[in-house]
Write a structure and sequence with these properties.
Elements lengths: L3 E4 L2 E3 L5 E7 L1 H4 L4 E6 L6 E6 L5 E3 L7 E6 L4 E6 L8 E7 L10 E5 L2
Parallel strand pairs: 2-10
Antiparallel strand pairs: 1-3, 3-8, 4-5, 4-9, 5-6, 7-8, 9-10
Length: 114
């Protein structure tokens, strides 16, 4: 069973914006904190934003003020609105539970380049 399906990535110039979407299986979406992670080439995967079932949010310092995580309970979907993108935001972005993660989805590539 596919539990996380990410989409919305692409190529943008510095300062641009993208919105990522993650469709989450209902059994997970309703009960767990969901996070957006990213992995840049040669680096470890890192958590950049998370949202609780009550829509409380948390952000890594590197994206605070630029990224916004949200959830649509009717669609079992979590979003990541990314603005003022920087070169260093280039990575494959994934969503998953926060804490004890499940199997990873395929991710979505975000490339920021001039």
């Amino acid at each position: 069973q596919v539990q996380f399906v990410e989409s919305g990535g692409g190529s943008v110039q510095p300062g641009g914006s993208l919105r990522l979407s993650c469709a989450v299986s209902e059994s997970i979406f309703r009960f767990y904190v969901i996070g957006w992670y990213r992995q840049a080439p040669g680096k470890q995967r890192e958590l950049v934003a998370s949202v609780t079932s009550g829509s409380n949010t948390h952000y890594a310092d590197s994206v605070k003020g630029r990224f916004t995580i949200s959830r649509d309970n009717a669609k079992n979907t979590v979003y990541l609105q990314m603005t003022s993108l920087k070169l260093e935001d280039t990575a494959v972005y994934y969503c998953n539970k926060v804490g004890m993660v499940n199997a990873w989805g395929q991710g979505t590539q975000v490339t920021v380049s001039s």
